[in-house]
Write a structure and sequence with these properties.
Strand 14, helix 7 and strand 15 form a beta-alpha-beta unit. The chain is α/β, with parallel strands linked by helices and 626 residues long. The strands form ten sheets. Strands 12-11-17-13-14-15-16 form a seven-stranded mixed sheet, sandwiched between helices. It has a five-stranded mixed sheet with strand order 25-32-31-27-29, with no helix packed on it. A four-stranded parallel sheet has the order 7-8-9-20. The longest helix is centred in the middle third of the chain and has 18 residues. Helix 3 runs parallel beside helix 9 and helix 4 runs parallel beside helix 5. It contains 14 helices and 32 strands. One of its GO terms (molecular function) is serine-type peptidase activity.
């Protein structure tokens, strides 16, 4: 937290009077030294962690607000860090590092520790942030596949949203499989991760002069020409597990490591401990084109599954001379002929495992190979053996995407202080773009083809367009309670989320979950003969109070879509209007097309308000009730 991204700024006035928080001092965290008119709050919560599983907060992780892991620093600086010139990771990604909302102030609430996050600590952190008067909460925490009433993030976020606080979360990093998205509550803003137009290429030159391209942020001296090359599976461990590699054989060689079992960084460390000269880390087969730039402790390069297979084939088929390779590290490349953005393979996907009628993730933002401030209390690799310390690090994570969206939400909150969290989410979703730099639908690194709304949500966030979206789809606490009743929750289960002592009579609120006023349409067909109808309320927030919007439908293949009425005529007295959209399956072949996608666009000539349509054939048994 002593990074330049959080330095005091003479251009920032004192915090608003509505903010009631502050910084807590401990022997390891001197609040007067760390906190200022930029970092205006710093608190920590640990009692649940120590009580729940008999864990003890160790000295290395500091029983204080101090970020000893690096994740909080990365998130805070990406969302709202001040501009820092000449930022880089050992020269990689060099430039000015700026958070999305550099004029915003930051309050940090530390609730997670080495062995995880206790639910009670997470809830205490949420409650404290709410009481302190924050405007936006960035909560990129992993979640379990549990009902909303058992999910501390969902419970805490519900309390925040009902107070007008937007909560931004991450979809998590379990992609590219379906139903992997987490943090799927409709009251939170859930971000998936995508690339930017920056790469860190490295060339692998094999002994037969075949050249393969990977990704690396190695910062040390270059490798010598043609070093002996071995496959981890031939020397003790295909995944390059610590202690399993034969040091006698590995010494002085480059080792090819398969994905799985341990982390990429652990693989590099294992090779180094065995005396290896370098590592080539293969990716998962289902990750397709995604490779990873990681802060390895030795010369290392990440390659696709296909490239790793080619290298292993070369090793198998080469007897004389001995298999060999070298790696040429090429630094930072902007553009490079590859379209951007592209969806990260690791970014978790929909449909929602709880309520597939709610599209998740909501939106995508940069989360691949992003540069952000990093804690000086941890190494860039996170490995204990790594003694390096850096001011900035390069990270792949939906957490980074979440932080980008959070900062943009803060900007919207500044422009539209009267907007609800749902209105802010709606503006971000309906103005998102879906074409990449080549003019094609945003691609998916896992397949190489076009991504779908189950990966990218409504599209890539577009801050400038979101300021003036034309229409918004709003929702309030009562709407979320109705949603909870619609998915079958009892009054007792709803009460866990509302936390206000009220008793909800769900018998009077049972409805169709697809009617929740969401800025997207996710349709589930249980029967090939049944049409599905959903209702929406759109509110005019454009510059003209009197205007007429017309619906333009791009129907998903195999589905007939109608909108009634096809036009919405807004006026000073009719600022909010309802419409009904009906989806009828036509020639649906579930054996080849379980999903189909389209969109509906409302336009008055000036604004284009776009909602994605995701249609799924999901027999009842396929969706768990949670």
């Amino acid at each position: 937290m002593d990074r330049a991204s959080f330095a005091a700024s003479p251009s920032l006035p004192p915090p608003p009077r509505t903010f009631r928080g502050g910084c807590v001092s401990t022997p390891e965290f001197n609040a007067s030294a760390y906190c200022n008119n930029k970092l205006v709050g710093a608190k920590f919560f640990y009692m649940g962690y120590e009580a729940a599983a008999a864990h003890v907060v160790e000295a290395a992780e500091s029983r204080s607000p101090l970020d000893t892991a690096g994740h909080g620093t990365l998130m805070a600086s990406t969302a709202a860090g001040s501009a820092v010139a000449d930022a880089s990771y050992f020269g990689y990604a060099k430039g000015t590092a700026t958070g999305m909302a550099p004029g915003a102030r930051i309050a940090a609430y530390k609730a997670c520790w080495t062995a995880g996050c206790a639910s009670s600590d997470v809830l205490m952190a949420f409650d404290e942030a709410i009481n302190d008067g924050v405007d936006i909460i960035t909560a990129a925490l992993g979640a379990d596949r549990v009902p909303f009433y058992s999910d501390s993030l969902a419970v805490g976020a519900f309390s925040a949203v009902r107070k007008g606080i937007t909560v931004c979360t991450s979809a998590s990093n379990y992609g590219p499989g379906e139903f992997t998205a987490l943090n799927v509550a409709p009251w939170v803003l859930t971000a998936g991760a995508s690339t930017i137009n920056r790469q860190f290429p490295a060339s692998i030159i094999l002994g037969n002069n075949e050249n393969l391209t990977g990704t690396s942020i190695y910062e040390g001296p270059p490798l010598s020409a043609k070093i002996p090359l071995v496959y981890g599976g031939d020397v003790g461990s295909s995944a390059c597990e610590a202690g399993k590699l034969n040091a006698t054989i590995v010494a002085g060689k480059i080792v090819v490591c398969d994905a799985g079992i341990n982390s990429r960084l652990d693989k590099g460390e294992a090779v180094k401990l065995a005396g290896g000269a370098g590592a080539i880390i293969g990716s998962r087969q289902d990750f397709g084109e995604q490779t990873a730039a990681s802060a390895h402790v030795l010369p290392a390069v990440g390659v696709t599954f296909a490239a790793a297979d080619k290298i292993k084939k070369y090793i198998r088929e080469t007897v004389s001379p001995t298999p060999a390779a070298t790696v040429v590290f090429l630094g930072t490349l902007i553009g490079g002929g590859r379209s951007a953005p592209r969806m990260a393979s690791s970014s978790s996907r929909g449909p929602s495992f709880i309520a597939p009628e709610i599209l998740k993730p909501d939106i995508t933002a940069p989360g691949m190979d992003t540069l952000a401030a990093y804690s000086g209390e941890n190494s860039p690799s996170g490995l204990v053996s790594d003694t390096r310390r850096v001011k900035f690090n390069v990270i792949i994570s939906t957490s980074m995407a979440c932080a980008h969206v959070s900062g943009i939400a803060a900007l919207l909150r500044q422009v539209h202080p009267d907007w609800s969290p749902a209105a802010i989410k709606s503006a971000l979703m309906t103005t998102a773009y879906n074409q990449d730099s080549a003019g094609d639908i945003i691609r998916d690194l896992s397949t190489g083809g076009a991504s779908t709304p189950f990966a990218r949500g409504a599209g890539h966030v577009d801050p400038n367009r979101a300021v003036d979206p034309g229409l918004v789809y709003d929702a309030a606490t009562d709407d979320y309670v109705t949603f909870l009743c619609s998915i079958g929750y009892t009054a007792q289960q709803v009460a866990v989320l509302t936390r206000d002592g009220s008793v909800t009579d769900c018998a009077t609120r049972r409805g169709y979950v697809g009617n929740h006023n969401y800025p997207a349409f996710s349709v589930v067909f249980r029967s090939s003969a049944s049409a599905v109808t959903q209702r929406r309320l759109a509110r005019n927030v454009g510059n003209s109070t009197t205007t007429t919007y017309t619906a333009y439908v791009n129907s998903p293949p195999g589905v007939f879509v109608t909108v009634q009425p096809p036009t919405l005529k807004f006026s000073l007295l009719r600022r909010t209007l309802e419409y009904v959209i009906t989806f009828t399956p036509q020639q649906w072949n579930v054996t080849t097309n379980k999903y189909a996608f389209g969109s509906v666009v409302w336009s008055d000539g000036k604004y284009k308000v776009t909602s994605p349509i995701a249609v799924a054939w999901l027999p009842t048994a396929q969706v768990a009730a949670m």
